[in-house]
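Propose amino acids for all 53 sites.
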């Protein structure tokens, strides 16, 4: 079974990113997951900022 997840994350600090990445990667790997694409960019290049999709 395939599962795709798209996340819109707004980091509040560099520490929050650092504290999130390790555990998230471990959890994804534990369940056989893989990233199709990732970015370290935290900017929104165009469009209005949207919250609460």
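Proposal:
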């Amino acid at each position: 079974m395939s599962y795709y997840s798209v996340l819109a994350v707004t980091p509040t600090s560099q520490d929050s990113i650092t504290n999130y990445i390790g555990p998230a990667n471990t959890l994804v790997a534990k369940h056989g997951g893989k990233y199709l694409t990732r970015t370290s960019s935290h900017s929104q290049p165009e469009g209005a900022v949207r919250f609460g999709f």
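Residues 8 and 46 are 14 Å apart (CA to CA). Residues 14-30 form the longest helix (17 residues).
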